[in-house]
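Deliverable D5.2: sample structural annotation.
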Amino acid sequence: MPNIKSAKKRVKTNAKKCKSNTVVTSSLKTAVKKLEKEVKTGNKETANEKLNIAIKRIDKATQSGLIHKNKAARQKSRLTKMKNNME
């Protein structure tokens, strides 16, 4: 446990940030998994919707600094290609 006042504050802010970062990253992973599931089943309309949601979540994670912009571009490209190559 920290003794210095600023270190105590730092523990609190780090915990708060950790919660918000966890929410963003878990929603990103969930959106990607839902899109992959729709692509496997072959639903084009719902895959379109899920792709838009996944791209929004990727952009949000990039803005908050959770993932690098190159990783975001790679993920968006991979997911778009996956949706376009559906049967």
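Annotation notes: The chain has one domain: 5-84. The two ends are 57 Å apart (CA to CA).
The annotation will be released with the project's public dataset once the embargo ends.
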